[in-house]
Amino acid sequence: LAFDKTQLRSEAFPTIPGQSLTIYTGSIESSLEQLLQKTSKEGGFHPHDPHAPDDTGLGIAHCWIHLPLVNDSDQPQTWILETNYRWIDLVRLYEMHFTLHLEPGEQKHYYLFMRDVYWINTRLSLWRDIDQYIHYIRKQETFSHVYVGLLIGLLITNFCVFLAFRYNDIGYYLIYLASTGLLQCVNFNLHVPYWGNLFIERSAGLPSGMNYYLFGGLLVLSAGLLLLFSCEFLQIKKIAPRVHRWLKLPIYVFIAGS
């Protein structure tokens, strides 16, 4: 599968002996200097557990991750750092830009700042083989483009059928397809590369806000539209009018609640 994450792509972080990845989720600091000044006096970093529940907040969720890395080989090494989560509003790596390069025996301390709306997933992956990482990203893009192409083809086909026969169930099915298509675009984060040049550059907080609110709303809307299409397709109103009256309430609740 395009989104399958195999054991070959990720490896353990080569940390400095006696140290490990740590995380800070206290008050947000505007710069690395302020963070180091505060934590040197008060502490605050604790061991990073990749299996711990996602960090949450009432408005903006944020964290700092300390990466004390070392190259214990006799050759220069370069890694790619990947966040294992699509919905990230802001990620900054202090030292280099997501490429971790160390000379033989060299030790460096990296600080990764992450921010998102309401919750944040802090799981990370490290890639040693850059070509393998590029291949993995291209597989994801191919999967996404094929999915969007098939969805557009399905929409066009059903739209032509609807114009020819004017069946109500096909009309509801078209609306359902459009809703589920938008839902998957938000799920796969496809609106960022497709709409970024038009909208995202004008508002730094737009991507995460769109993901959080659109996903929930489209999920509920798709459920209501699916019920509406099923009732029309199965002719529930004619076959079982009483059942149809009972089903109208959850349908309207789903659609209005979205």
Using brief descriptors, characterize the structure shown.
258 residues, alpha+beta, 3-stranded antiparallel β-sheet, 47% helix, disordered N terminus
Total strand count, please?
8
Distance between the termini: 31 Å
Shape: elongated
Strand fraction equals: 15-25%
Radius of gyration over C-alpha positions, nearest whole angstrom: 24 Å
Low-confidence stretches: 1-9, 196-206
Oligomeric state as shown: single chain
Q: Outline the biggest β-sheet.
A: 5 strands, antiparallel
Q: Strand order across the biggest sheet? A: 2-1-3-7-5
Helix- and strand-based class?
Answer: alpha+beta
Provide an overview of this structure.
Helix 3 (168-187) packs antiparallel against helix 5 and helix 5 (206-233) packs antiparallel against helix 7 (241-257). The protein is of the alpha+beta class. It contains 7 helices and 8 strands, in the order βαβββββββαααααα. The protein is elongated and about 75 Å long. The longest helix has 36 residues, at 130-165. The strands form 2 sheets. A 5-stranded antiparallel β-sheet has the order 2-1-3-7-5. A 3-stranded antiparallel β-sheet has the order 6-4-8, with helices on one face. Residues 1-9 and 196-206 have low confidence and may be disordered. It has helices at residues 32-42, 130-165, 168-187, 191-195, 206-233, 236-239, 241-257; strands at residues 22-24, 46-47, 55-70, 77-83, 90-94, 99-102, 107-120, 124-127.
